[in-house]
Amino acid sequence: MKILVTGGTGYIGSHTVVELFSAGYDVIAVDDFSNSDPKILDQIEKITGKKPAFKQLDLCNEQEVIAFAKENQDIDGIIHFAASKAVGESVQNPLKYYRNNFYGLINILTAFNSKIKLVFSSSCTVYGQPDTLPVNENAPVKKAESPYGNTKQIAEEILQETCAVSPDLNVIVLRYFNPVGAHKSALIGELPIGVPQNLVPFITQSAIGKRGPITVFGDDYNTPDGSAVRDYIHVVDLAKAHVSAIKRLEKGDTANYEVFNVGTGKGSSVLEIINAFETSTGEKLNYTIGARREGDVEQTYGDVKLSNEVLGWKAELDLNEMMSSAWNWEKYLKDNPF
Ligand code: WQD
Fold it and tell me: Is the per-residue pLDDT at 170 higher than 90?
């Protein structure tokens, strides 16, 4: 089986390439390096002993994607990560998000004639603030808070509607909760551009002295300690969920459009994450309490029964491993800047 990984040098993409290799798959990765670094390919080789076949490709360029598909007719499945993902930037520059996230998906479906097995990166952001927790896959999709969130909702609709008329298109949509952490080798991890907007990269950069104190966005939520609650999942567990999804598609007895939550099923507050980081690394963090961040939901965590039972996948790594691996990666970056 040969798997195309779009966004293969990105944060989740690179970890997934590693897990695909260890599960015995052939991999071809594509990326435009808009939010990643070519050196990630060498890092993958250091971990696995193998360098993935690679092509630098702009997925928004339909002709380039069509030519790529013609040259690579032995591709059996696609994991489509390549997309823009910064919530705040999407509010400032919505067209960038609609262009990148839709053109990329549509060009791939077009180039492969809607005859392919495809795993798509979606997000728990489609649920907004769920009415019941843990939230399962049948919960209603709520009006998106940002253009980024909207691209995920509409991309799911594009896939569902295309599947309805394409018997040879098989899609698994994975709705991720909050991916954090890094590979245990500390050779790959997240490479945020500028000031990190997400909690864990901000924590590690603050701890290493690259940033000032952390601001906890709100301590007056209706949660046990007042700070907002999320379902944090180790990026390596998340990567393995993609391998399980590919295996399910490979078996071929699936409905042609399926959706799964990918999380741990457990909620943790911002203050609990700060505490877990301090406990697992021995580093002391400075933080202050600030106002709530616009667009944030109070709490969300996933019902992961379906992915556990149907995908045969379960998150295995705990907060301790999430925090210590994120910290080891930050320390690696300090000595080996990209
Ligand atoms: C987590 C919690 C913050 C920073 C978003 C997207 C989601 C996915 C991941 C894409 C929240 C709090 C954060 C800080 C804080 N996107 N926080 N101080 O917002 O749950 O999810 O990123 O790839 O689709 O919606 O993640 O890490 O930004 O925040 O207190 O400096 O940490 O308010 O409660 P979020 P996050």
Answer: yes
